[in-house]
Design brief:
about 350 residues; four-stranded antiparallel sheet; 7 helices
Length: about 350
């Protein structure tokens, strides 16, 4: 990460540093004054602010999100000599310990004065943090503590960065605290670029999805039409199969009853023309000129006697019918008298 640091001491003197940081260490640039803020990943403002409230707290259990902020705000408010709405505040987390925090609070007027100093110097920054936050909370000795306090705010930041290069363990005073005219120009420029790229990406994605949808819709219509045609063909094939099976069964019965095919065939031909598609002949018996038919149907048909009475080769006598309630299929037993010589 390429960083910049703006340091303001208690006398209001301003100094800058730039460099790169990783977990291996901090490497400072020879030129400590940057010409283009967009070349730096992040720019921090640090100062040992007067009347800064610093408190170390240990929570009874780890918390996250709004619960964590609410708990820390409660801990800080009880220790502040002034109302919370008159300060900017934040916290430092110690490494991976999710219960140990250092709270800090600075009067808003003090922060405004520091930001005005940055504005006068024609500089910009992403966040502000008081230098006291980087004092070690548990010094090894009194001598070590005195040396630590002798470090400048920028030096303490540089000593801190290797342990937290991305500054993830600090709740920094940024965005709402830092005015837009002080934030680096790259924020606005990159934001517009990201929005433009996102818009182009959405348009391109919509175009691709729309083309795929149109192709899918066409394929779906074609397959639906094909499926309907196949279902129709299947129904016709099933009807033909039923007709063939019935004809075979009828032929078997005719053979068993030894009925002359010369007298039977005209009658069967007449019946096949008169019966509707949902009916078929399931049985045939003959005694002299009296004929008894068993006709199966997928539904009831009260017009069957009238249909059969129109024939000139047989005379309709009577009928019986049985209907199954579950599927409304009906079995007709019909008696006819043959008019053939």
């Amino acid at each position: 990460m390429h960083f910049g640091i703006i340091e303001i001491n208690r006398d209001g003197e301003l100094a800058t540093k730039t460099g790169s940081v990783s977990r291996r260490g901090v490497y400072l640039d020879a030129d400590e004054v940057w010409r283009d803020a967009s070349s730096l990943d992040v720019i921090g403002l640090v100062a040992d602010t007067p009347s800064t409230v610093i408190h170390d707290v240990v929570l009874p259990a780890p918390l996250k999100g709004r619960n964590l902020e609410s708990a820390l705000a409660y801990e800080l408010e009880s220790r502040l000599p002034i109302p919370m709405d008159q300060v900017f505040w934040g916290y430092r987390r110690y490494g991976r310990d999710n219960t140990r925090f250092r709270l800090f609070a600075i009067r808003k007027t003090v922060v405004d004065a520091l930001l005005a100093r940055v504005r006068e110097a024609n500089l910009s920054c992403d966040y502000f943090v008081p230098g006291q936050v980087f004092n070690d909370a548990e010094p090894m000795s009194r001598e070590w503590l005195d040396n630590e306090r002798n470090f400048s705010p920028a030096e303490r930041v540089l000593r801190y960065l290797p342990s937290d290069p991305a500054v993830k363990n600090l709740s920094l005073l940024r965005e709402a605290v830092i005015p837009a005219d002080i934030r680096p120009v790259r924020h606005r420029r990159w934001k517009r670029l990201y929005q433009l790229l996102l818009g182009l990406l959405l348009v391109a994605a919509f175009g691709v999805l729309w083309n795929r949808y149109e192709r899918f819709s066409e394929d779906y219509d074609t397959l639906t039409e094909r499926r309907q045609q196949l279902e129709h063909d299947l129904e016709e094939a099933a009807a033909t199969t039923r007709t063939l099976v019935q004809a075979k069964e009828l032929a078997r019965k005719i053979t068993e009853n030894k009925i002359g095919s010369t007298a039977v065939l005209p009658l069967l031909a007449d019946l096949s023309e008169r019966l509707p598609e949902y009916m078929w002949l399931a049985g045939y018996t003959q005694s002299g000129d009296m004929i008894e038919l068993t006709i199966m149907s997928t539904k009831d048909d009260p017009d069957l006697p009238r249909t059969l009475s129109k024939s000139t080769i047989y005379q309709f006598i009577n009928q019986r019918k049985t209907t199954r309630p579950e599927d409304q299929s009906t079995t007709f037993t019909v008696k006819l008298r043959s008019l053939l010589p």
